[in-house]
Amino acid sequence: MSNPPLQDFIDRHDKLFVLTGAGCSTNSGIPDYRDSFGNWKRTQPVNFQSFMSDEHTRRRYWARSLIGWRRFGQAKPNDAHHALARLEANGRCEMLLTQNVDRLHQSAGHRQVIDLHGRLDLVRCMGCGRKTPRSEFQDALGRANAEWLTLDAADAPDGDADLEHEEFSSFQVPPCEACGSILKPDVVFFGENVPRDVVATAQDHLAKADAMLIVGSSLMVYSGFRFVQAAAQRSIPIAAVNLGRTRADDLLTLKVEERCEAALAFLL
C-alpha cells in the first residue's frame, strides 16, 4: 500500500522530527482519549493535585490500574511503530518524541525516543525519588488486594480500567518500601509539568530537523502542541497523519486522514 503525498513528503526530507500520540497505539489495543473532533470520549484522567492530596483518588487510581495493567503491560507494537522504527533505521529520523507512555516505540526497535509524558512501566516515590518496575508494584498491589484480582473491566487509556461501580475504601495501596511516601506512576499527570530538561532536549533536536511528522495526535494538549508551534515559527514543513481534527490544522503542509498503520505501510 502506498500514500504518494506522504511518501513524497518523507522522501524529500532527511531529518524528520516525529511526534506521536495515542492514535499510534490504538491498533495495539490501547484506547485513546479523544474523538475525531478532539473532544474527550470519557471523564478526564486523574489530576496530579487530586492524586497527591486525596487518599480516595489514589485508591481509585491504583485499583483501576491493577486491573488495566494486566493487558496494557502485555501490549505489542503494531505496524505504525515498526514503520517508524524502519524510518529511523534508514537514517531519516532526527528524533521521535512521543506523548504516549507505553514504550511501544522502544519495543519496536526505535532507539532515539523521548518519552515526553514519562513511562508507565516505572513507579516513582514522590518522597525519595526511588523508581521501581511497574511489574513489581503490580505484584505488591495484588498481594495486598487479592480479592480484587478476580475482577475484570473494559480497558481505558494508559493502563486504566473502567471500574466505575466499586467501593474503593477497602483497597490498600502500599507505600514506598524505602521511605514510606506516596508512590505514583512515573508519568506526567494532568496538572503536572513536563520536566524542563525533557522539553529542552526535544527542542534541541527539533532545531536540527528539516521537517516535522505528526502521527496519531490531535495535539489538544499544549505540551505536544508547543513543538508544532516551534516548527511553524522556523518555517519548516509539517505533515500530520491523524483521523479527524488536530489543533494544528492551520499550520500543516500536508494532512493525511488515515489510520496510522495504513498511512505508513509504505515504509515497511
Describe this structure in words.
With 268 residues, the protein is an alpha/beta fold. It has one domain: Rossmann fold, CATH 3.40.50. The protein contains nine helices and eleven strands. The chain has helices spanning 4-11, 48-53, 55-72, 79-89, 104-107, 134-144, 196-208, 222-233, 260-263, and strands at 16-20, 93-98, 113-115, 118-125, 131-133, 155-156, 160-161, 183-187, 211-215, 238-241, 254-256. The protein has a six-stranded parallel sheet with strand order 3-2-1-9-10-11, sandwiched between helices. Strands 5-4-8 form a three-stranded antiparallel sheet. A two-stranded antiparallel ribbon has the order 6-7. Helix 5 links the parallel strand 2 and strand 3. It is elongated.
Distance between the ends: 10 Å
Quick one: overall form?
elongated
Strand numbers in spatial order across the main sheet: 3-2-1-9-10-11
What proportion of the residues is helical, as a percent range?
A: 25-40%
Order of helices and strands: HEHHHEHEEEHEEEHEHEEH
Number of helices: 9
Q: In this structure, how is the largest beta sheet organized?
A: 6 strands, parallel
Which segments are poorly predicted (pLDDT under 50) over 5 or more consecutive residues? none
Count of individual domains: 1
Computed structural class: alpha/beta
The averaged pLDDT comes out at 92
Strand elements, count: 11
Tell me the β content.
15-25%
Instruction: Assign the CATH superfamily.
Output: TPP-binding domain
Q: Tell me which CATH architecture applies here.
A: 3-Layer(aba) Sandwich
